[in-house]
Design goal:
The structure is a single chain. The protein has nine helices and 43 strands. The protein is mainly β and about 725 residues long. It has a single domain (about 1-295, about 310-315, about 325-420, about 425-729), classed as Maltoporin, Chain A, CATH 2.40.170.20. The strands form eight sheets. The protein has a 22-stranded antiparallel beta barrel. Strand 18 (about 300-310) and strand 19 (about 320-330) form a beta hairpin.
């Protein structure tokens, strides 16, 4: 009897009513209404299909057409135009772009998926999201703002981004693209895909190179000490001028990737491999590093294997089983290394490797048309060697760590290495219930267990209301955790102060912190969307986030003994303090289609505020401008498209009270498709210009510790333009 009552409660009388008409997302982009885009299906927010309007979260869908017409080349290009997200370029030594999402700063504060599988570094090496995440073979991008650990576990913290690539059925042929731009920038790609009955195959390859701007030319005051260095050959060594390799500025950026997919009935198999090479000195204090790839560089490799199988039963109440097996690895070229203040301006070497092997199983049960149950588990084995101390010779990957024969400079003390292995297990459950036609309730939670940091439980809940045709309300709440990465827990660098070999007294070292605990985040949101017509929309959103157990640094001003050498300044990681962030967005969109002319307009104003509180200091959010405006117009006439987009950010203060001035950034994309009207081999031309007004603008440093190791504010790119051609056949 109890079972019957529960079944009746979960199966409302209207459950067999006719389904609403699906969104028309197969029409040409210029004919798609804004309502069609709002009703387009997404899967990332719930792991089952819901429309953008119905998904129990703040969702942004970026389609292949948007990518093409707006001239997006990388994931950072996309995120720059998303409300409540702010971007800084080259704001750390090792990361070419830095993301702040709803006031929470860092590329490790959100989770990035490639075709549904997490694709971040197993060791925690920060991903720049630039050309390694090129969009030339991407079908769509689903961006979720807010916590998602209840579904995805660790690191689905401030948000989640799912980059979904094309397969053979999407490509149906080949495309070759070549481009050239300022600063000797080239970007070339080839992709091919097709279907053979129930089997689809695709391959996509790209190569990117740029010399990047000579920043001392565009920001001479900020780089005045660079000119002094080139004249004298000396840099700052802890307050004393010291000889350094006198090398001309050379900061190239190179990327190469290959992505192959096979779709065999219900089995999807894919492989991604790539590398990026750069100089890890982007934000370094000008007088404390050598800005040349002849003196130092990083080359980082990454690959990922993914196999996914989906089985779905037939009948009125289908059950689907999704099985995923994946392996993600990254590793340094052993020749990678620094030449800066911590290496006494001598060539040093770094090494790191990591592997994450994952098995995931998810079950989705449609109990009725009004009730869906999703449950699943994951098991990961994580192993690796976090980034090493500066080494005097290249690391030999063929030897175990205890046989490397590496010593700290001017000592006979063996370098400490910290290889690590961790096992993670997680289980999740989610129930979606529609008690009445105009309401859907989502509740769920996930349990995660790690050998390194223990266990966490992260619930979520949401109510989506559609009381009348023009109105939709969403009320999501979620919790998430950010696991301490191998990099955060085990990073190790520094130097001894030595008068001569064997005569050392003092020094500075950042030492591993093995007891770091996860950060914890709780977010409540409100979102309403008004469909004035099918082509005029307005949305209003607000959020409040509280983050505890923040990762921070402690020490550097106190001394102790390290490996037998006294009076060493020691710095460690620590959990302390909290962050509060709150704000909201007002956004409006309009679409006009008249004959051969198609116009799309969007504008969003975002307010962001909050504070960071520790045991000593309390600061406003230092990586998020309080006021931002993002707007754009898309003009399409037959085969010609012109899309200008504007990003305005108000003045902000860094934690060291340096002022980042307000700025307005204008980017423009122009495209002409099928130049000669060919059916068999169409040719497309395009050009993309960034910072069209050639502003001298800045971003806050991503890590602002006040120690003088980074520039106080970070100069950003001057005007850049590139153009290209695509041949399809």
């Amino acid at each position: 009897m109890t079972t019957m009552i529960v079944w009746m409660m979960l199966t409302p009388a209207y459950a067999d009513d006719p389904e609403p008409e699906p969104a028309d997302t197969t029409s040409p982009y210029e004919q798609m209404s804004l309502a069609d885009l709002l009703n387009a299906p997404v899967t990332t927010a719930t792991r089952n299909e819901r429309s953008v309007a119905e998904a129990p979260a703040t969702v942004y869908l970026v389609t292949e057409d948007m990518i093409r017409y707006r001239g997006y080349e990388t994931l950072i290009d996309v995120l720059r135009d998303i409300p409540e997200i702010q971007i800084g370029l080259r704001t750390t030594e090792e990361t070419g772009a830095w993301v702040t999402m709803r006031g929470i700063s860092g590329n490790d504060q959100f989770l990035v998926l490639r075709d549904g599988l997490r694709a971040d570094s197993p060791t925690g090496q920060t991903d720049a999201l630039l050309q390694l995440w090129s969009l030339f073979d991407v079908k769509r991008i689903e961006i979720i703002l807010g916590p998602a650990s209840a579904l995805y576990g660790a690191d689905a913290f401030a948000g989640i981004i799912n980059v979904i690539s094309k397969d053979g059925s999407d490509m149906q042929g080949a495309a070759i693209t070549g481009s050239y731009g300022m600063f000797n920038t080239t970007h070339d790609s080839v992709m091919w895909g097709d279907n053979f009955g129930d089997i689809g195959v695709s391959v996509a390859v790209q190569a990117y190179h740029s010399d990047d701007p000579f920043f001392p030319k565009y920001y001479p005051k900020d780089y005045a000490k660079y000119f002094d260095y080139r004249e004298t050959g000396k840099l700052n060594l802890f307050g004393t001028p010291a000889d350094a390799p006198n090398l001309p500025w050379s900061m190239p950026y190179d990327v190469g990737t290959v992505h192959a997919k096979a779709n065999i009935y219900d089995l999807d198999i894919s492989y991604f491999g790539g590398y990026e090479r750069f100089v890890p000195a982007w934000s370094s204090a000008v007088d404390e590093t050598v800005h040349s790839d002849k003196g130092d560089f990083y080359r980082i490799f990454r690959d990922q294997f993914l196999a996914h199988h989906r089985y779905e039963t037939l009948g009125e109440h289908p059950i689907s089983f999704d099985t995923t097996i994946g392996r993600t690895s990254d590793w340094f070229d052993p020749q990678s290394g620094y030449n800066n203040i911590f290496t006494n301006y001598e060539r040093s070497y770094k090494y790191s490797y990591g592997t994450d092997v994952t098995t995931q199983e998810a079950l989705t049960f449609s109990i009725s048309k009004a009730v869906t149950l999703t449950t699943g588990f994951s098991y990961d084995v994580l192993s690796g060697l976090p980034k090493t101390q500066d080494l005097l010779a290249p690391y030999d990957p063929q030897k175990p760590t205890d046989s490397q024969g590496q010593f700290y400079e001017n000592t006979t003390i063996p370098v400490q290495f910290y290889p690590i292995e961790d096992k993670l297990i997680g289980g999740t459950g989610q129930l979606q219930v529609q008690p009445v036609p105009w309401m859907e309730i989502t509740v769920g939670s996930r349990y995660d267990q790690s050998r390194r940091y223990g266990s966490t439980v992260n619930p979520r809940g949401s109510v989506v209301l559609h009381p009348a045709d023009p109105l939709t309300f969403k009320l999501p709440y979620g919790e998430a955790f950010l696991a301490p990465t191998l990099f955060a827990s085990y990073q190790h660098y520094g130097t001894y102060y030595c008068n001569a070999p064997g005569d050392c007294d003092g020094g500075f070292f950042h030492v591993p912190t093995l007891d770091l605990q996860p950060e914890k985040l709780r977010t409540g949101e409100f979102l309403t969307t008004i469909e004035w017509t099918r082509d005029v929309l307005t949305s209003v959103s607000a959020y409040y986030t509280h983050l505890t157990n923040q990762f921070d640094f402690e020490g550097g001003d106190t001394t102790g003994s390290f490996l037998g050498i006294p009076d060493v300044e020691l710095q460690t990681g620590i959990n302390r303090g909290s962050l509060t962030a709150y704000g909201g967005t007002l956004k409006t969109e309009a679409h006009v289609h008249a004959g051969a002319v198609d116009l799309r307009f969007d504008a969003a104003y975002t307010y962001t505020n909050g504070d960071i509180e520790g045991d000593v200091v309390k600061n406003a959010l230092s990586n998020a401008a309080p006021h931002t405006v993002k707007a754009g117009v898309g003009f399409l006439l037959n085969r010609l498209s012109i899309t200008p987009r504007l990003v305005y950010a108000s003045k902000l203060y860094t934690t060291q009270s340096n002022i980042v001035p307000a700025t307005s950034l204008l980017n423009v994309a122009v495209r002409y498709e099928n130049l000669f009207g060919s059916v068999k081999a169409p040719i497309d031309l395009y050009a993309t210009a960034t910072n069209v007004l050639n502003q001298r603008y800045y971003a806050p440093p991503a890590i602002d510790l006040g120690g003088g190791d980074t520039m106080p504010i970070i100069p950003q790119d001057p005007f850049r333009v590139n153009g290209g051609i695509t041949l399809k056949f």
